[in-house]
Design goal:
- This protein is α/β, with parallel strands linked by helices.
- The chain contains six helices and 13 strands.
Length: 264
């Protein structure tokens, strides 16, 4: 089955070697300017995905649909974002699915927000909390440019007083002291739902694990994801890249249960 580009599509132009990627939405009479040349949107319409196109400078690119990982890696940011390697397992562990209501605390630049918004679909909702208005401003812009802003409701406030939503399907705390918000998270979650957290140091993880049971959570697990990329050029004899993104944080997941002392 051949899929053709059309107005309103979010597309990616990727160079032959993959070193330059440009993501934008096709518009009638639109024009996209890059340091590799200019593309008129009308020249990019009604083409099969995977087609080769050229800028006005003659530089070759291929039209693709951007993956979630590519969108996250290309986000403008004013704070550290979660890496796709951590976001992927987080979506699975939280059990995120279309139509769900999810809370995240710690909007940042919107990397996880983007992935959550895609996963819940047009019938779901993501509630994103952060007390820093300037940080959320960029996240709002990032989501708007990707056409996902209607799926996200931003709350610029401290979460000490708790969350406005209840019976939510999953919750993620991307804050440096999640142990201080376990009671608030438990009050927001539907029974049996998963709470997740990302922390950079083991000292913080130990602090969190020490508070889990007395706040009504059970079965905590902590994991770390290491991703090792490889050079895939045949001339390089296929070997590991010289550099890798190793430790980015410890992910901890647990479930909300209906009695206060889950270890009894």
């Amino acid at each position: 089955m051949t899929i053709y580009t059309q107005i309103g599509d979010l597309i990616q132009l990727r160079s032959r070697r993959g070193g330059h990627n440009f993501v934008f939405t096709l518009q009638a009479d639109g024009r996209y300017e890059t340091h590799k040349g200019i593309f008129n949107h009308t020249d990019l319409l009604d083409l099969p995905y995977g087609s080769e196109v050229k800028s006005h400078l003659g530089r070759s690119f291929f039209i693709t649909k951007p993956t979630t990982a590519e969108l996250i890696e290309g986000l403008k940011r004013n704070s550290q974002i979660m890496y796709p390697k951590d976001i992927g397992i987080t979506l699975l562990k939280l059990g995120v699915a279309p139509g769900q209501t999810i809370i995240e605390a710690g909007t940042g630049s919107g990397g996880l927000t983007l992935a959550l918004a895609q996963a819940v679909g047009p019938s779901g909702k993501v509630h994103s909390y952060d007390r820093r208005a300037e940080v959320q401003s960029l996240a709002r812009k990032n989501l708007s440019q990707l056409g996902l802003d209607s799926r996200v409701e931003f709350h610029t406030q401290d979460i000490t007083a708790g969350f406005a939503q209840t019976d939510v399907d999953a919750l993620f705390l991307d804050v440096p002291d999640p142990w201080n918000y376990l009671a608030q998270a438990h009050a927001a979650l539907v029974g049996g739902a998963v709470l997740g957290s990302l922390l950079p140091t083991m000292a913080q993880v130990l602090e969190l694990l020490g508070c889990v049971h007395r706040h009504g959570f059970a079965w905590p697990e902590t994991i770390e994801i290491l991703l090792r990329p490889y050079k895939t050029e045949p001339a390089a004899n296929v070997r590991p890249e010289d550099r890798m993104v190793a430790h980015t944080g410890y992910l901890t997941f647990m479930r909300a249960v209906n009695y206060p002392n889950a270890d009894e």
